[in-house]
Amino acid sequence: MHVMPLVFFYSMALSLLLWGIVFLVVLLATVTVLLRIWVRSCAKSLLPHLKEGDKDVLVVGFFHPYCNAGGGGERVLWCAVRALQEKVTDQTATYNNRAIIARSPILSTVKIAYYRAFAFIYGLAGSCCDVVMVNSSWTHGHVVSIWGARECTHKVFPPCDVKEFMNLPMKSDAGKTQHSIVSVAQFRPEKDHPLQLRAFHEFLKGVPQDKRRNYKLVLIGGVRNHGDADRVDGLKRLAEKLEVTQYTEFRLNVPFSELKQSLSEATIGLHTMWNEHFGIGVVECMAAGTIILAHDSGGPKMDIVVEHNGSRTGFLAHDEKTYADAIKTILSMSSEERMEIRRNGRDSVSRFSDQEFQTTFLNASESLFR
User: Fold this and answer.
1) 187 touches 195 (CB < 8 A)
2) Secretion signal: which residues (predicted)?
3) What span, in angstroms and rounded, lies between the C-alpha atoms of 213 and 236?
4) Can you give the pTM of this predicted structure?
């Protein structure tokens, strides 16, 4: 007797939630339009150097949520600004930020409805662009599928200033008794440092106890706040649980000179972020002469760890087993085989130089200055 009222109640609740989503989408669209009108109306006071009807003045705005975080994405922003400064002698750069939108995981239907609505509005905004620049093949496919602006979307690889790494001597590791596996990444969740520890543990399981001291995992990264510090503490606890603490080293907020030294001594450069759009850290490891072992997805898979001159430039993996197998394969090679991959990897990164970025960036934006 109570089944029908209960079904009716859940049906009404779901219906109200879905209508609520529709209302929020309409509200967001309305606020966006009103905000655009308000910004235009305030442009004269906010940007006094602009005159109404002046067609010769071009304003370039850069959007970047965390331009002071110190990562590879931030370097792209400042190199883009520098490229335009060299091309145009007088311009105004404005920066915006966005609020963090909480997403409810309670009902999958509500979550899907939210993402679809957001993607629809996102696609509408993107379809209005005159020029779109993306940082990798993976991002290109993602943006084109949502925005549909294939003709005006340009692939511009990020600038990787690797001169300091390229100058590191590339010595043969013949006779080397201790091999280090070095990871360079900020201690953020998406970098997936736990996967590195689990993969290293999986690798060590196949190494005799008395030989394990010959291998070391070095985790180098920046700690920005208490959240990052707590994350490092959690990683140390995981290392202890996996019984790899004595073979693992954490180096936090190290100076650049120490970073270079660590990479110059490393045999393997380790990267584990899933679907990273590009992967400047991967390029830096290759430039330093390490054999890169990166995640089999995103930019590393499609653009960086690819064949160069018909030869291998590194290795890819996707879980702790494939990472452990790759580590074993690399360390089982002869020093000559490893040297060939190291040299080829270093030679391949010239595609991502500052000069190449500036050239492709300015070529893509040329239509805006006509």
Assistant:
1) no
2) none
3) 18
4) 0.72
